[in-house]
Amino acid sequence: MTHGKLYLVPAPLDFGCDVQAPLQDALPLGTLQVAAGITHWICENAKSARAYLKRIDAVAPLAAPLQAQVIQELPREVHKKGDHAGQFDARPLLAAALEGHDVGLLSEAGMPAVADPGSSVARAAHDLGITVVPLTGPVSLLLALAASGLNGQNFAFVGYLPQDASERQTRIRELEAIALKTGQTQLFIETPYRNAALLQALVQTMHQNTRLAVARGLTLTTSHVRSETVKSWRAKPQTATDERLPAVFAIGR
Question: At what angle do helices 165-182 and 195-205 cross, to 10 degrees?
Fold first, then answer.
């Protein structure tokens, strides 16, 4: 029996935001048409997956009605601890692909397995001989990097910084030292309601000549990217931060 494929289906970057961008403005029609033809899914949350499929259906009719879509959720521990360390076996989730069905992998926003769970599913697909196909769509990290003016030839995404203030300050200094010594841009994210606290810590902790970029609400009508030295950040009033608006932070020289 011929195996189905695993499609990595990107989602728009407006998850949790008050205003949603038109889907066809954020994703190519080709991506939406492929997604519309998939009836088996692996996702973080079934409710938000169905909401996304409903949006797709308005642009490209689904091959099966919402109630007939087969949707599996990744385990809760994968959300909390991540699945990039190789400790979670996702092969059972791909049984439908072994039976010949194409399977779609979804995260809440952006590209699955990039700053989101899903790498274990892609890894399992390779181990099972299932073709993995990433579809085109928004990736907030690369959009932020491109808009920042920082080094796009050498960069690292380091995930989340510690929540504890002392540990966070230490980590900021470590990342700044790497950026200044090597020229490697350091990218990181935070839960939206902690964005203001992280921005304050960055501005207070780093050297005045270090460049800090913050990209908020990428692809939305409220999108804003600011990239200046820490000295300039300190000199100008801080932009109000919407606690529901996702942001990407980058530091470099």
Answer: 60
